[in-house]
Amino acid sequence: MNTKLYVGNLPFSSTALDLQGLFAQAGSVAAIDLVFDKLTGRSRGFAFVTMATPEEAKAAIEKLHGHALDGRNLTVSEARPPAERPARDFGDRGEKRGGSRERY
Predict the structure, then answer these.
(1) Domains present along the chain, CATH in parentheses
(2) Which residues, including other chains, have CB under 8 Å from residue 31's CB and lie 6 or more apart?
(3) What is the three-state SS of 57-91?
(4) Which of 19, 21, 29, 44 has the fewest beta carbons closer than 10 A?
(5) Which residues of 6-29 are buried (b: 16+ CB within 10 A; e: fewer)?
(6) Distance between CA 43 and CA 89 in Å, rounded?
(7) ∠80-43-66 over CA atoms, to 5°?
């Protein structure tokens, strides 16, 4: 069973290949998801690394949490499921500002 890890405080220059090599020291890496900003395309400084087994994930946390990579100490922990966000209501946007909904 795969175990997903959160990896934070990454140098912005980090690549999936860098993470593959680093986490392979602790076991088999099943997947790497490096997170990028949608607008700029730049790294957001964190990633998710999926290890093949829970034991390898635990070994990766023990070995790499606090590990210095390009002058930054990594944060490595088991990933948590995303928090549920309430639905956004875009209903009466124009009326709340007191103006007409028509622009022209």
Answers:
(1) 3-77 (3.30.70.330)
(2) 2, 48, 49, 50
(3) HHHHHHHHCCCEECCEECEEEECCCCCCCCCCCCC
(4) 21
(5) ebeebeeebeeebbeebbeebbeb
(6) 30
(7) 55
> Which pLDDT value is given to residue 102?
61
Is the whole model's pTM more than 0.85, yes or no?
no
62 residue type, one letter: E
Q: Is the model's pLDDT at 96 over the cut of 60?
A: no
Sign of CA dihedral 41, 42, 48, 52: positive
How crowded is the C-beta side of 42, counted as CA atoms within 13 Å? 7
79 in Cβ contact with 51 (< 8 Å): no
Coil, helix or strand at residue 47: strand
The dihedral of CA 41, 46, 50, 56: what is its sign? positive
